[in-house]
Fold this sequence. Notes:
Number of strands: 39
Keywords: Disulfide bond, Glycoprotein, Immunity, Inflammatory response, Innate immunity, Leucine-rich repeat, Membrane, Receptor, Repeat, Signal, Transmembrane, Transmembrane helix
CATH superfamily of the domain at 648-789: Toll/interleukin-1 receptor homology (TIR) domain
CATH architecture of the domain at 648-789: 3-Layer(aba) Sandwich
Largest sheet: 23 strands, mixed
Structural class: alpha/beta
Family: Belongs to the Toll-like receptor family.
Main location: membrane
GO molecular function: transmembrane signaling receptor activity; triacyl lipopeptide binding
Subcellular location: Membrane
Strand content: 15-25%
CATH class of the domain at 648-789: Alpha Beta
Amino acid sequence: MIRGGQMRLLGTEESITIFILILAQGFHYSRTCVCDQQYFCNCSSNHLQQVPKVPANALGLDLSFNQIKSIHMNDLSPYSELKTLNLHKNKLKFIHKDAFKSQHKLEVLDLSLNNLKNLSSSWFHELNSLQQLNLAGNPYPTLGPAPIFQSLLNLRTLRVGSPSLREVYKNGLDGLTHLDEMTFIASNLKSYENGSLKAARPIGLVSLNLQNLFQNDPELVSEVLQDVSHPETLLIINDAVLKTNISTEPFKAAREGGTKSLSFQNSTTTDEAMTSLLMVMDGSSLSYIGLENVHLIGQGWWQKASYTHYENLHTAYIRNLEIQGFFKFSSMMQLGFLLVHLHKVSVINGTVFVIPRQTTPLLKNLEYLDLSQNLLSDLTIEPTLYTDYGAYQNLNTLNVSQNILKSLGLISRLATKLKSLRYLDLSHNSFVSMPESCSWPATLRFLNLSSTKLRKMTPCLPSSLTALDLSENDLMVFNQRFPQLTMLILTGNRFMKLPHGELFPRLQNLLIQRNALRMFNGSDLKRFKSLQYLEASNNNFVCSCEFVSFFRHDVNHFITIRDGLHNYVCDTPFTLRGDAVDSVSLSVFECYMIPAVLVLCSLIIIVLGLIVVTCYKFHIIWYLQMTKAWIQAKRKPAVGQLAEELRYDAFVSYSQHDAEWVEEILVPELESAHPPFALCLHKRDFQPGRWIVDNIIDSIEKSHRTLFVLSEHFVTSEWCRYELDFSHFRIVDEHNDSAVLVLLEPIEKETIPKRFCKLRKIMNSRTYLEWPEDEEKRREFWSNLKAALQKDE
Length: 793
């Protein structure tokens, strides 16, 4: 029972675990698929084992490089909007017959490199819009006899076959009227039914990968070539091994089919096989021969085919040709029977270091010559471009880019002899500098000097150019006039501003990306009278207000930006670095800093002026000073209440204009009284060198009373006001009756300035003595004054 219970519990835990794993796997699918704004979902390389869930409106679904083994009927049914489905490099073994039933809009389907051992026509019944189908690399041994492709009426590109393919039968290609390109892989083919690869109309490009069949079963290859050869078809032979005469026999079918274009890619051949091929194709309408990634075993001795006729052969394209024993290769004189007919020759990355001088006269009909990515140098370029005896008399295009040329002057001198030259590509050489003057053919219109390490422009360049490419150099200044130039490419230099537009009256296209441009404006663009298109992204733009405003609102009035406004980003100021110029928003202060600062400073000055005027009018500074002095006085120890520290009976506060009355009448009368009064006068008793305010405060605090001699002069004296205010502070703080007022002359209260508010309060709240004009009343005045100055008991 216990064991059984344990087993049942364990089963429950396993079920829960499996359920959680399934949920986690579902979430994993949703996380690993990334869908962009174009509704393309990328689920590639995520170890998926089934079709994940993506938005139902997805237009593209990339499931390549996963581990999906089967596609069931409903796996793709939610995605009826799909136009592209990529299942390349999975482990597909099974596809339900109705798996693609809902994909009516599907245009591209890739099922290559899976484990499909059988192809079913039912997969494609509903794929009426399919244009590209890739079934290559699956291990199905048979193609046909069912009409697999019959329903794909809009199919344009088909890739089919693998090394596992053994038998091919008619399969429905003969009903396809739009097929433009087909790749057929069958390196181990054993059986082929005639007509199996023949479409309803000639296919534009047919690529065949039959490898050793040329050597092992040439008759089978002939049957295939018979179906695909046509004057309108470019025939590409991949991975072929052509070493003997037997291996070239199948090309009789190509000749009989009228093949005009024949190319060999990733193949191996010998002198014997090439000679035999030329003899087999003798008299054909062949006009194009291509050799790409071909390994040649031999020395170019093809004289046995010198009697052949290739008057129609106009183009030879050779790229990445590897010649075993290259330095034993002959001077090509024995190939004269081919060279005399050629109009276009490309020998790219073929370790060519020279064309012998005796060979160039054979190139009288040559119009196009591409010798890029080779080993031409200043020593070998001169015999290569030897022009005597009519050589190169029709040459209009010359490409010697990516060689090891160093002298631009030498090239210009040699080019001058090419009387028909219009296009010259000298890019990716190491010229470094230009001579001051050069000679060029008058016919030259296009010159490419990109990536040639140039540091300075000189008048060397021809003014007849209509297109000039100076990209990826180290140029900073452009000052040569080109009256015919319509396109100028300056990408990847060090220009800090646009070149002067007056130099290019007909310029229509200017490319100046990845330089050191800081900004440009309408006046810069107006100088270009004919400029239509500008590409100036990826520069170090200073996002000033003028530039941002011009770029956002006005630039399209002058030209068309073709490289995307979002690629124009700010470099400075630092706070805007990396922001797109057309999305930047600057404040008024940032845009008009100097006027804003002037306005701000003006406002500050005005406000300060108003403050000064206000302070002056309302005596605010005076009040502040008084407050400060009073606060300081408040912090001192309270000594006024100690009788022994009161030295004076009264501190006399008066205006200097009333000094005569005070000194000659008031002081003698009081100080000669019995008992005499001790008076404190600022003129006599203030401590020299001490701040006057401190003297006033100290004198008031050491006096029993403060005697104010009031007059018109008093109310206009600032120091009298200080003394009055400090006395008022004392009255309020100490709650005593220390102020005594003597009115020396009549004063109307209304005439007292507002700043003497304390005086108004004291006069309203206290009795004051008036100095009588009548001498008979003065005795009473002195008596009352002395009584007021008496010390409190």
